[in-house]
Amino acid sequence: MEFLKKVYHAVAAVLLMLVTSLIYGGYILEWRGKRPLCILIAAMAVTAVLIALVCRYLKKYAGQIAVVCIVPMTFCLATGLYKLYMVAADSRSIFYLAMIFFAAAYFITEYLLNLCMENASLQNIRQFFNTHKWVLILIFIAVLCRVPLLSQLPRWDSGEYYYRLILGTHHFEYTGFKEFVENYALCGHPTLGFCLVYLPGELAFSQEVIGVTLTSLILTALALWCVYRIFLKILPQVTEGKAAVCTFLLSFSPLFFGMTMYFNPDYALAVFFIFLLYSYVYDKAVLAAFFSLLCFQTKETGLVLVGGLVFGIFIQHIAEKRSHAVKAIFKDVKLYAILAVTLLQLYYTKFIGGIATWTQNGNEEPGLRWDSTGENCLGFQPAFVAVKLKQQFLLNFNWILTAGIVIAVAWWFILKVKGRKKIQASCKICGIAGAFVAFLSFSCLYITASVARYNVAGDVLLYLIFFYCMALFAAELPESTFLKKKYAGMAVTAVFGVLLAGECVFTIGPVTRGLFLKLDTGNTTLCFTGKVSDINSIYYGDYLIYNTQYTYIDKAYDKVLADVDYHPDTTDIYIPDSNGSFICGNLPFYYLNWDEKTKKRVFYENENTQEMEFYNEVKYFSSEMVSKGKDKAVLIVNPYMINVHEEEHLAKLAPYYEIGERKEVKLLQGSIVYYELTRK
User: What is the DSSP string of 515-580?
Assistant: First the structure.
């Protein structure tokens, strides 16, 4: 049997060496000659032996290291298959890419071979599916519900991030770390880890959006599995079925659901932090280090979340060990692992000259400063704090979570004081609570755009805490109420699930509609979730993101342009105000393309596409727009824009255009009004 194992490993190594040579060997032979190719083959053989030794002597960590290897392996593979022509011919980068790919792929293969030979059997596989069948089915349903959003067009900040990612793929020549930072620190944020994870999808489906949205979908499915495993570990008196239902409900958290396909670091940060929480709960030191680094290199708030988690780990050890807490802290390998990658992040901040280089405009200094009257800085503004607290605790039925947590905690402490507490709470909740408190505090004190989408990590943590408190509350109820408790719990869960599903698509929450500014989309209500200083100067962009309702805008735009037989060469576009319209792109920085075949606005370019042209704003209307324009035009109006009156804009256009009848594209989540115009 031992001999057979060695044969399998040798065959796997040879096959991977062959695959690596096929992917990278031709370029190495063409650019560097035969000698480097021979060196590559020899280096792969030596690496295979070393990896076999590592897997044998570090068996405890082999599985964690294999998970870490997935990211560099997929990045190098995607580069080798789709972007190798971008590698600078005079660099050694192809050699390094080939070695990283082989080492990562062989480590994963070695681990899987060992795992299969030791544990794999039909009975074990059947047992796994029987044990976890409910969560697998529910995760499949949660993923399936997100599939219609796969082709969602990035808009507003998402469009800016995606455009910068595209630019990076066009300019990065794999010459070194400095160049990687220059191309993939998107918008000045520390997004190197974020890009590394999403780049394989983008390289495989260049500029087609589906590459990054498919990556998000895969990450979401994996994150939900980790949430399920976390629930199994921290919830009192939990079963696989209960943990599966809690996971399913969390998957339909409206903000978490609505941002799945909205390409941005905030959603990725929430997902990576879920992976980190899994590593924390199951004491996986290597994974804790890796996912901490991914959090750091996704957005600045990753430092806040990881810092809060570490503080929570200290509290956990104090709660569990009391007088021996200091010893337990010093023996916690996870803390050393997180410390190691924190030092790496500190080196990165020194390398770039600060925590981040992001500024909203050229008049600001990057980094942290305290100024309660400023923006994009630390400070205390009561109105801003009030908005952030409303978003976190009241938006999207979060008020139900808040009320449930308050009631459960009060009940638990009353029982503890009376000495009737039966269930020992898991102290693992300390890390989750610590991260939530740190994140909420930073959200309230860092004065920036008051958009709800920044709260997605906070929403995930709030749901985790809520289900923990509810499980604790239910476990403390008297046994005589078991049947009543069971059926009442099922009924409440069903109602809560229906409310969440509805809120994912429409704004149905009475608290949300009551506390936030309501916008009329023509056939339903959309809410502006930010701070409103002046109702006439609000920005209709990312402030509209709190579920999936905003996605109707692009669908309606495409439908309008298709209905009027739009073409950039024959049709002008008029809009009342450019405020968050994003109809032709984020002008003047980049333009979308119009695909004549699919009748949609797209990022990619092919023989069917043509770049869209600058739109005209009616509020700045002049006769020059008409004289320099085309014979055909279309006026497009978003009904949700406050103080935008169609009659006023039509009156400006009437002397120059024959105005067609008022038409409306009505979708379930909202509508868009348009008029066809013909030059007189």
Answer: HSEEEE-SSSEEEE-S--S-TTS---SGGG-SSSGGGHHHHHHHHHHHHTT--TTTEEEEES--TT
